[in-house]
From TrEMBL, chains A, B:
Organism: Streptomyces triticagri
Record-linked InterPro entries: HTH_LacI (IPR000843), LacI/GalR-like_sensor (IPR046335), Lambda_DNA-bd_dom_sf (IPR010982), Peripla_BP_I (IPR028082)
UniProt xrefs under Gene3D superfamilies: 3.40.50.2300, lambda repressor-like DNA-binding domains (1.10.260.40)
Keyword check for Transcription regulation: yes
Domain HTH lacI-type: 24-78
Annotated spans, Disordered: 1-25
Protein name (Swiss-Prot/TrEMBL): LacI family transcriptional regulator
DNA sequence: TTGAAAGCGCTAACAT
DNA sequence: ATGTTAGCGCTTTCAA
């Protein structure tokens, strides 16, 4: 810019036609093209409101100068960013990344994570609506957390799972639309957020019923999720419901409840189950997610047990890796891409004049049971 | 501040303790906590520079008010956004999306695209450096294009492939660092951009040599890429080089040059090749990317030709789908995630005081030949 | 169709 | 440790 001993450069001096000045602004373009800054602005925001000749002049000057409109200034002046955001959990936990996963996904991370698919869905949908997408893995809280950063830079955003304290989100959602990609923490004491979730309970119930009715299994075990995962809880509820419907004993809690929902933990859960069971091996083990189920597949193989002959195994999520393992994993597939799309739709709707003050909304997306080999189904396409 | 009867609401009136005012600002927080706006700012930017008691007061007020710092205002005042960007091609072309791909990737888009992996790599790397990532599929040009939007909202960004006219990028790169995820358009007339590319020629040459030396193939055909793809060109060059080294005739152009590099086009290319060849079937067909090779696999199967017995097939890229098709596809794997990481490193470096004025840099990342079944190698892990 | 000027919400001197 | 204040670069009335 210019060398002053003052805080900032002054406009007056900057205008003194120095062509080498870096980061040109509307003022530079205006001067060079002999119009006012308002006209420069118009050229970008509403080209048709400027006479063609003028417009060309301005554009030419902008080119010469290397002018790029500052998104920040624009956003500040117009109170909108044209950007939607997504905060997702940092799934690169060491356990998943190095230990267990590395063995399977030998192409370095060739396969999509849950969050990748949602990113894709959101990006596509956002683009359709003219928005760009800002993504950030959410870490810890604190005043200067990533969420805050995202929140300050977007017109609205989605939060994957319960990555961020609901409390913080409620504060933020007073300022801009926030949609949570998970169910409400407490269905009865509603937060004021929009939610989009998948039919966890229904899916798990359907899958459980499949095991019971179609494969005739009765001795089942359920490996749950981490303590505070409502998804995992809902899945367990679905499992329990199916048992009840079939006249089996109704458990009050999962047979095993791992610390993490990783492959390593899945393997560990199997060991625990086998040690505990003695001769009374379960005929089927249902896992609250695919990662654990896949870990279990390996553990069972190491123990010399055949899947599904000796024991059936199922997961939940429908991650691509589940198609590749042998036997291919029977699971419940979540419509992740749609999750992202719905999130964008909801945000865009809230951003439109219409949805501003409407009631919080909770959408539940349907899931599919995917029958593969690990439950005893043949080589059915999945 | 001052009470004027002009366009916008005045701070003075807003300060009149109205707690219901929407989108609270530093002024609101400052007033409510009895400090100056500077102190509020400090609490967020440099908490330690504020006495604990004060900080708490401010944070409490912010909570009550639902205050979220405006990224725009911050960025404007501090001339930085804390965001890095990525523009990538809109790969959801109808052809790939519906026709050919749908048949294989039957999980809807269960498998990663080229761009997904780069996004992942960049996001991870950006996070390590404290940046968020803004992503946008780049469309056409024009003053108000998406690139411009991205450019205005980030501290620096990467452009995947030649998505954006180099011309535009050069303009933009006068204002902020831009790294192109592709080689320079013209190696001799250098643009002023940083580039990161993969060793296309080397990789294709190594693969070709493998076919010639290890499998003893001599009658080879190369299916190139679109006219203006330097990647595809470099791959062809590598192919030609390997032929030369082996004492085979050196072609001046690919045997087939499709319009698009899709599965459908790959299939079409095979048909063309077979029709043309008559009895003189090639022993091996090398494709400039995996998509086409996979399409070719299907086409060959339809024609009753066995791979690799009748004809070997290879691709380039190393997309996950290549592992799943039968026979599994021999290919050259690009380190896509690293591409993203290197991009971020480069950008961050440029943003640091050090790299500002340095010469444009061009990095070339090494690639791996992945030997699977489609070239005649056994069931080697890949 | 164009210009003039206030103000968007924050940061960063500088002063205290 | 905290307050004052001048911008950051744009959009947007309002007036011409």
């Amino acid at each position: 810019m210019n060398a002053l001993s003052f805080p900032y450069g002054t406009r007056g001096e900057q205008r003194a036609g120095d062509p080498v000045s870096s980061t040109p602004t509307v003022y530079d373009v205006a001067e060079r093209s002999g119009v006012s800054i308002a006209t420069v602005s118009r050229v970008y925001r509403n080209p048709d409101s400027v006479r063609e000749a003028t417009r060309e002049k301005v554009l030419a000057a902008a080119r010469d100068l290397g002018y790029v409109p500052s998104g920040n200034a624009r956003g500040l002046a117009s109170r909108s960013t044209g950007v939607l955001g997504l905060c997702f959990p940092d799934y690169s936990d060491p356990d998943t990344e190095s230990e267990a996963a590395a063995a399977d996904a030998d192409d370095d991370h060739a396969f999509m994570l849950y969050s990748d698919q949602i990113i894709r869905g959101m990006e596509r949908a956002a683009r359709r609506h003219g928005y760009a997408l800002l993504i950030a893995a959410s870490l810890s809280g604190g005043p200067e957390s990533l969420v805050a950063k995202v929140a300050g830079r977007v017109d609205g955003f989605a939060v994957l799972a319960r990555t961020v304290p609901t409390e913080d989100l409620e504060v933020i959602s007073r300022r801009l639309p926030v949609v949570m990609l998970a169910g409400p923490r407490d269905p009865d004491g509603p937060d004021h957020l929009d939610h989009i979730e998948v039919a966890n309970a229904d899916g798990q119930r359907a899958l459980t019923r499949h095991l019971i009715e179609d494969h005739g299994l009765r001795r089942l075990a359920f490996v749950g999720g981490v303590e505070d995962s409502p998804d995992a809880q809902a899945r367990f509820d679905g499992y329990a419901a199916a048992r009840q419907e079939a006249g089996l004993s109704v458990p009050r809690a999962p047979d095993v409840r791992p610390e993490l929902m990783t492959q390593a933990e899945g393997a560990r859960a199997v060991e625990a189950l086998l040690d505990r069971a003695g001769a009374e091996l379960p005929e089927g083990i249902l896992f609250a997610n695919d990662q654990m189920a896949i870990g279990a597949l390996h553990a069972l193989e190491r123990r010399g047990l055949r899947v599904p002959e000796d024991v059936a195994v199922t997961g939940f999520d429908g991650i691509p890796l589940g198609r590749l393992v042998r036997p291919a994993l029977t699971t419940v597939r979540q419509p992740m891409r749609r999750l992202g799309e719905e999130a964008v739709d909801l945000l865009v709707h809230r951003l439109g004049s219409s949805g501003t003050a409407a009631e919080p909304e909770s959408r539940v997306l349907p899931v599919d049971v995917v029958r593969r080999e690990s439950c005893g189904c043949g080589d059915v396409a999945g």
